[in-house]
Design goal:
Structural class: alpha+beta
Largest sheet: 5 strands, antiparallel
Shape: elongated
Strand content: 25-35%
Distance between the termini: 16 Å
Number of helices: 2
Number of strands: 15
């Protein structure tokens, strides 16, 4: 069969994925801390070891959306008047620690709450206190966290205790040499990969009582949606044209 059928099929499939990215950006135009994503394409003709769908379509056919990179540019910082809301003006991320999995992740969304966490009571020498049965004495402490049970880290990498709606330690701002390609895990969270390099202290400024607005540019996204729709239509038109050519050739036999 003519390869134009496969090229057009891959094109239509990938334009659907592109449309999903821009549609998601538009859907989160009012989501605090949301970072818009940009589709990145590569030509499969230049990499014959890859294919859009190796089980159904030939490799090296058409183009393929290899990633949806996040753009971390800041926009507006609306005032929420909440004591536990924070925004980062400039570059940087808040660091989150998941006590269940031990996972560290990073976010630009500073809409925090307090969550309880049980810890051992220490004596004046820093040793765990025990009760009359020899069991460690535990106390319930409230720490700064996101809404999913992950705790925010201070600039020293420690949990931040909250008393009277006030953080007792400075909230840490962290960054990476290269933020391109960070793995998006949902909930406005990101996990660094090897090319991002080691974590370092961020240069951004902490703004209390504000949140980072979504950096989705609605006008640009609407234009990109129209582009994706047109490209999808062109790919389907290519299938129709190829079919007409095949029909003409068959009728000449």
């Amino acid at each position: 069969m003519d390869m134009s059928f496969y090229t057009a099929a891959v094109g239509a499939q990938q334009q659907q994925r592109r449309l999903d990215v821009h549609g998601n950006n538009i859907a989160n135009v009012n989501t605090y801390g949301f970072t818009a994503k940009k589709p990145v394409f590569m030509a499969l003709m230049n990499d014959f070891m890859r294919g859009a769908d190796a089980d159904e379509l030939p490799r090296g056919t058409g183009t393929f959306m290899i990633a949806a990179d996040s753009t971390f540019r800041g926009t507006a910082y609306p005032d929420t008047k909440r004591d536990l809301d924070y925004a980062i003006e400039g570059d940087g991320f808040f660091a989150l620690w998941d006590p269940t999995s031990g996972e560290y992740s990073y976010t630009r969304d500073g809409s925090f709450i307090t969550s309880s966490y049980e810890r051992e009571v220490l004596d004046l020498d820093g040793n765990p206190e025990v009760d009359e049965d020899g069991n460690p004495v535990m106390e319930m402490v409230w720490y700064l966290s996101d809404a999913m049970g992950r705790f925010v880290l201070s600039d020293e990498g420690r949990l931040i205790e909250v008393t009277d709606k006030t953080a007792t330690l400075p909230i840490g701002i962290y960054d990476f040499v290269n933020t391109n390609g960070m793995l998006s895990t949902g909930d406005n969270r990101f996990i660094p990969i090897e090319k991002n390099g080691p974590v370092q202290i961020g240069t951004g400024k902490l703004v209390k009582g504000h949140l980072l607005a979504s950096n989705t540019d609605l006008g640009t996204e609407l234009v990109k949606v129209i582009e994706a729709q047109r490209s999808f239509s062109y790919a389907l038109k290519m299938v129709q044209t190829s079919d007409e050519i095949e029909t003409t050739v068959n009728n000449l036999r």
